[in-house]
Amino acid sequence: xxxxxxxxxxxxxxxxxxxxxxxxxxxxxxxxxxxxxxxxxxxxxxxxxxxxxxxxxxxxxxxxxxxxxxxxxxxxxxxxxxxxxxxxxxxxxxxxxxxxxxxxxxxxxxxxxxxxxxxxxxxxxxxxxxxxxxxxxxxxxxxxxxxxxxxxxxxxxxxxxxxxxxxxxxxxxxxxxxxxxxxxxxxxxxxxxxxxxxxxxxxxxxxxxxxxxxxxxxxxxxxxxxxxxxxxxxxxxxxxxxxxxxxxxxxxxxx
Length: 255
Known about the structure:
By secondary structure, the chain is of the alpha/beta class. 22% of the residues lie in helices and 27% in strands.
């Protein structure tokens, strides 16, 4: 399995528009962050987690050849705004509807945001997706790959976390229920979000994310959904344990 971090930034990305802070002004490419998304290659499949507003740029940058499945964590714009960019893959892949997995709350929002996909199904130029509803703790299969969905909370909003093999992926989280913690055992890689170092009502701080990483004892942990208030990539990573690091755009981990 190979996971590529297509983006590791928070909802505004880094640099933030009209901001001149030291992070947004940094010339270090590790401090340039598109919105959080991931590409997983496993058993010949190409799986995308979240299609944010930068998905087109990310797909071009990494030359993603095809999209077999899409997993949606939740329907906030920084995680789904690029959904219609799947249209190019739909036409390339012989007009076979692309399976997209999300929970009912997310689907209710996606259908409103992308009404033109669902209301103009007969128009020849529109994207066709195979909309599949998922529920926490009910496993499903992508080909021969089993996905275990579990719930975390982004303030009051349920967000889907996903476990695929020895990898768990969590974004936009401020609380993890005890039942979901059971899904984080025996991991080779934990991907978890932390927006900044100061407290936030809807996101883990860096300290909280590191605490979870220490509890689950994954072999490696990568932090995503990082805001510009986190600090400089190099300086923050120097303060973290060896196996817990801020991810960066384009980072690839092979397991």
